[in-house]
Amino acid sequence: MKKYIIAAFVSLSLMSASLIGASTSQAESSDTYKQLNLFGDVFEKIRSQYVRKVTDEELIEAAINGMLSSLDPHSSYLTAKGWEDMQVQTKGEYGGLGMEVTLDQGVVRVVSPIDDTPASRAGIQPGDYITKLDGEQVMGLTLNEAVSKMKGKIGTDIVLTVIRKGEKAPLEITLTRDTITLKSVRYHLEGEVGYIRVSSFTEQTDSGLLDALGKIKEELGDHLQGIVLDLRNNPGGLLTQSIAVSSAFLERGEVVSTRTRNDEHVQRFPAHKGDSINGKPLIVLINGGSASASEIVAGALQDHHRAVIVGTQSFGKGSVQTLIPLGANGAMRLTTAYYFTPSGNSIQGEGITPDVLVEQIKFDASKKINGRPRSEHDLRGSLANPNESKKDKKDKKSKGKGSKKGKISDKKTPPKEDGIAKDSGTDDDAKDVKMTQTSAQDDYQLNYAINLLHGMSIARNGDEE
């Protein structure tokens, strides 16, 4: 049996040896083979002696995932299903019903149906409780499991059992799955100010932003005083889309650069569109839930002095993940580079510092750790900021030894990398629905931003006169 296991890893051994390169010493190559031998021994012991039977596939997937997740909080293994879901998230389209939901007392509660989707056309209402899917009880399922059952091939039917306030008996509603396009960009007018909310960076974000800007300019014309770009609680997404969004407000210059472990390998990404609002005042709202692509946009606009950043410190995710397909076996998400703002700053573990610090009136103290907002540095195994000196790194490690960060970060998960509801949403999505429908009257940070923008507009017009 042991020979069988070792033989199964010969190809992996050869691949590892080839990656070592011609300059690698024979001793190092021998050590690699010894470690792979150890892996084979452990694998065999688990297969033969573990208390319950575990399939080879389960063990291999667990080993790969463990190898990747031990590197940093953002590297991971995606099964074939996980890879499929990731592609759905980044494309912003899927086959489903079209509603945002949450889990409430063990059953699915509808937060909001999405306009012009099977759910809205069938009369699904906010507050409806879905207790069965095709006759199967929802109670006991996780939200992701329920979401997965609602998704499916376009044109197929699903029967929802719905409990609705005011109805004496449960309703049986048949819906036909259709193509659902996720909206990552929403907008409305606050007087003569355009408010644009970007909830994530998908393939649809750039076009959604330009469409929103076009409609705002069409409605307000010369009366447009400026734009508030809301990136609060936006966990990020596609690097290309963050560059496109930044470019919509920049005439020229670098948006972001990335650097691999070889410091000489620097890739720079310039702005390529031109300022869509012709230099009118721009305010960007951020908070502790703004991460990754959101921070790229905020950092670029801040460094080029194109926008005033308002809110609280952002999350501090300054690394780039590359999705590497593994054929029929899914894919791996691997951290391959750091990104840097145009001024050469890395925000890894630090975040973007707003130009104007404005706390939300209804501040959630549960998101603080030792009196400060939770950030990338609080994740177990997070990467150090590459701009820090060795002394700074040692100081941080010595300070962290008694801080119990690991225990706290185990209880709190990082912002979702792509953070998008597939056919339904999570509790975070429910909060996001409320945010997109908010106005300056019930949102202190937005109210502050609009008042600040009014002042900037008056000053700008005065300078022009």
* Approximate helicity band: 25-40%
- In total, the number of strands is 21
Poorly predicted runs are 1-23, 396-437
Domain unit count = 3
Percentage beta strand: 15-25%
> Kindly state the mean pLDDT as a whole number?
80
CATH architecture of the largest domain: Alpha-Beta Complex
Structural class computed from helices and strand pairing:
alpha+beta
> What name goes with the CATH superfamily of the largest domain?
2-enoyl-CoA Hydratase, Chain A, domain 1
The name CATH uses for the topology of the largest domain is 2-enoyl-CoA Hydratase, Chain A, domain 1
Number of helices: 14
Computed CA radius of gyration, to the nearest angstrom: 25 Å
Coarse morphology: flat
Assembly category? single chain
Biggest sheet details: 6 strands, antiparallel
Structure description:
The chain has 465 residues and is α+β, with helices and mostly antiparallel strands. It folds into three domains: 2-85, no CATH class; 93-181, Pdz3 Domain (Roll); 185-458, 2-enoyl-CoA Hydratase, Chain A, domain 1 (Alpha-Beta Complex), CATH 3.90.226. It has helices at 2-8, 10-20, 26-49, 56-69, 80-91, 118-121, 143-150, 205-220, 239-247, 293-303, 390-400, 405-411, 427-436, 444-464, and strands at residues 76-78, 93-96, 99-104, 107-113, 129-133, 136-137, 157-163, 171-176, 178-181, 185-190, 193-198, 226-230, 254-259, 266-270, 282-286, 308-311, 319-325, 331-340, 356-357, 368-369, 372-373. A hairpin with a 6-residue loop joins β13 and β14. α2 (10-20) runs antiparallel to α3 (26-49) and α9 (239-247) runs parallel beside α10. The longest helix is centred in the N-terminal third of the chain and has 24 residues, at 26-49. It is flat and about 80 Å long.
